[in-house]
Design goal:
It holds the Pfam family Fer2. This protein has one helix and four strands; from the N terminus they run E-E-H-E-E. By secondary structure, it is α+β, with helices and mostly antiparallel strands. The longest helix has 8 residues, at 30-37. The structure holds FE2/S2 (inorganic) cluster (FES).
Length: 73
Amino acid sequence: MGEGSGSSVLCFYVNGQKIEDSAPDPKMTLLTYLRDKLRLTGSKLGCGEGGCGACTVMVSRYSDDTDTVKYPF
Ligand code: FES
């Protein structure tokens, strides 16, 4: 399925591993996804309000052109 075709596959990379989820829960937070589905428990739920930083994850982009990872993307 192409862009705009109604595809609901979630695709992204975590620690270099490709993750594809054909039935993602649109209500699930990234933190819950990482902790509960991928069992990556480094990020925690602290205040739940954006004040403590316990839930922080680093988001980056890989560039095929330069073979580099860019932060932030
Ligand atoms: S749990 Fe996310 S900032 Fe505190």
